Amino acid sequence: MLVITRREGEEVVIGDPANPLGVIRIAGIKGDRVRVAMEFPREVAVHRREVADQILAEEPQIAGKIGGAAS
């Protein structure tokens, strides 16, 4: 895990700087709250952790279901 410090208005570039996959910008800081703006292509899914966990919990589990039927 990479941990960095950024000030309001500063950015982090994800991927190749000449053709970045996305940009994360610190949009604002008020007390213990940080507003983060993310710019990614529409095909890149971006979720808060609690939403991502809920999506994973709702998807049908496919472990052990791949392959042909046992004979």
Helix coverage percent of residues? Answer: 10-25%
Low-confidence stretches: none
Q: What is the number of strand segments?
A: 3
Gap from first CA to last CA:
45 Å
Give the mean pLDDT: 88
* Major beta-sheet overview: 3 strands, antiparallel
Principal-axis shape: extended
Strand order of the largest sheet: 1-2-3
Features:
single chain, alpha+beta, 1 helix
Can you offer a commentary on this structure?
The chain is an alpha+beta fold. It has a domain of 48 residues. The protein contains one helix and three strands. A three-stranded antiparallel beta sheet has the order 1-2-3, with no helix packed on it.
Summarize the topology.
Elements: E1 11-14, E2 22-30, E3 33-39, H1 49-58
Compose a concise summary of this entry.
With 71 residues, the protein is α+β, with helices and mostly antiparallel strands. The protein contains one helix and three strands, in the order βββα. A three-stranded antiparallel beta sheet has the order 1-2-3, with no helix packed on it.
